[in-house]
Write a structure and sequence with these properties.
single chain, 454 residues, alpha/beta, Aldehyde Oxidoreductase, domain 3, 3 domains, 4-stranded mixed β-sheet, 4-stranded antiparallel β-sheet, binds uracil
Length: 454
Amino acid sequence: MNGRFGALNGVNASVHSATDRAFHDVVSIIRAKRDGHALSDAQIDWVIAGFTRGEVADEQMAALAMAVVWRGMTRAETDRWTAAMIASGSRMDFTDLPRPTVDKHSTGGVGDKITLPLAPLVAACGAAVPQLSGRGLGHTGGTLDKLESIPGWRADLEPARMREILADPAIGAVVCAAGADLAPADKRLYALRDVTGTVESIPLIASSIMSKKIAEGTGALVLDVKVGSGAFMKERAHADELATAMVEIGTDAGLRTVALVTAMDTPLGRTAGNALEVAESVEVLAGGGPADVVELTLALAREMLLAAGIDGIDPADRLADGTAMDRWRAMIAAQGGDPDAALPRARHTEVIRAPEAGVLTRMDAMAVGLTAWHLGAGRAKQGDPVSAGAGVEMHVKPGDSVGVGDALFTLHFDDERQDEEGRFNRAGRELAGAWEIGADAPQAVPLILDRIGD
Ligand code: URA
């Protein structure tokens, strides 16, 4: 069956078409994929290089991407596609650092601030964490947007400064923006896929993410593949397939790669919004914070240490003894931020209260993410400004008891408009369908659903 998420759907891996003889002809390459053939290494290298140089037109690349959406790619094709995208730019190399490097990538979810406590925590355990990160679009926030709410903090770093911070035994963790030369073919292709309905393909998503992570130069990688209403992948089978595809690409490229598949039907933690999430991350680093954020931070930290070959250290000890907090402060200061500065606060807050008593049975991650977005925490298109203080505070989570009039949510926003199109009213309409109060507690769902990789 052909389908939007098929990794191998319809591909006849054993049949190389006549295009092997004419791999410089982009129309033949498109036809070959359209007809279900596997592309050769030379065809893939040629088409990605040509697209990067502007010699393969956007409409041709879009047609090829659509053919991949329907026909899929084999593991060998996906590996080569990834390698060609890495080769389109420069690849960082940290093998001369005195400590092993390891990074984490999340496919994105609502309230997912895990990178903030995780990077300094893993650095405090002896690894170097080079993380090139992105800004948010739509209902999920971007790590850089969150960190940019800290006064003075800068996302742009020269590669030499990044290396210095990673080598510094008192810091060892960097979260910064990817330079223009990191997998430029992916940058162009992802923007094209975004406007041509060709994002939804496991091999294209997997190669897009992994090309950037491999080019970043990390020695090991832990993936957090989210599944549920607030995630990119809504269904478990698709999340497992994506996790497997990314682990295969990493492994085939010589990168120690493991994936956790984690639940994203309910937001992570108790905040969604930039400065609100920074404050919650600092709570975790101080030894407190919401149980789900602590659980996932520690689980990912343990996987990262394992992947980096560091044993005998329990990251929970580094949270408890304050060394992770020290690394956080040093990491923020190294990028110009003031870890002691007050975080920005939105100009207005409104509290949403429970109309009845009972148990919170549901809180939908997607609706909460969209609520934070309406309030100003996210952007509708690249380059839009975001509000540092805007977002949603969740006072209860599924399974918690509530009484009549108890606070469920506090909405934070800057907008003065009171009419129907004002941010608060738009957010209120979104949030109305996000939660339910019932008589019985919902069945507890595990946060970590699976682990994929050796
Ligand atoms: N994130 C990426 O970086 N690439 C994709 O294709 C999808 C999500």
